[in-house]
Amino acid sequence: MVGAKVQITALMTYFGGLVQKIAILACLLLLVSCQANKQPTNNQVQVKVARVVSGQSLEVLGMAEQPNLISQVRLIGVDAPDTRQRPWGDDAKQGLEKLIGGAEQIVTLEFDVEPRDKIGRTLAYVWKEKVLLNEELVKQGYVLFFPRSLNHKYDQRLERAQQWARIMGLGIWQPDKPMRLTPTEFRRTFR
Question: Prior bond to 67 cis, omega within 30?
């Protein structure tokens, strides 16, 4: 009987310690996940659009300390047809202009991991009144989803948007007038 009590006490101590360790581990996992989902306060900024350069880039005012300094912004996760790639390049630029609503409009830039591309443009997701313009451009078939940087926050949304545009035959995916070369292939071929 004494041996059984010792065994029961040993099991209770073992499982009690195990339960305690599981509880601590669960708390740590919860703490880490809360930290991962916490958005830094400086990951968004509102700016004024100076002009749309192409279907994937903008010039904006208000990013730096000097409010009248123009900054170049490249939309994350998209590859727009070159403006010489007609008619798709012009369509992409006009599509972005239409989504923004013209120059002097206020948009919100949201930043991810990698802040700049190799030529110094700021990389950002562009929001206008709760609409992610990167996603909307892909969904309407103006641009391709192209995950080429460390920024992958909205990759699933962009990929689904591209699947939608392909299924619906929108923009560059039109069955009777598809874009034959990707923007990257076009740029390589026609430098």
Answer: no
124 φ, ψ (degrees, to nearest 5): -155, 155
Q: How far is CA 110 from CA 79, 152, 158, 183, in A?
A: 18, 12, 15, 24
**pLDDT (tens place) for every residue of the chain, 191 residues total:** 666 565 655 545 665 665 565 545 443 344 334 333 333 346 999 999 999 999 999 999 988 777 788 999 999 999 999 989 999 999 999 999 999 997 789 999 999 999 999 999 999 999 999 999 999 999 999 999 998 789 999 999 999 999 999 999 999 999 998 898 888 888 888 88
Question: Amino acid letter at 29?
Answer: L
CA–CA dist 135, 75 (Å, integer): 10
At residue 54, what is the residue type? S
Amino acid making up residue 190: F
Please return the burial class of 174, using the count of CB atoms within 10 Å of its CB with bins 0-12, 13-18 and 19+.
middle
- Nearest in space to 143 (alpha carbons), one of 100, 90, 187, 189: 90
> Going by C-beta distance under 8 Å and a sequence separation of 6 or more, which residues neighbour residue 190?
82, 84
Strand partners, 125: 110
Residue type (1 letter), 101: G
| Burial classification of residue 142, based on how many CB atoms lie within 10 Å of its CB (0-12 exposed, 13-18 middle, 19 or more buried) | buried
Query: Residue 55 in contact with residue 93, Cβ under 8 Å?
Result: yes
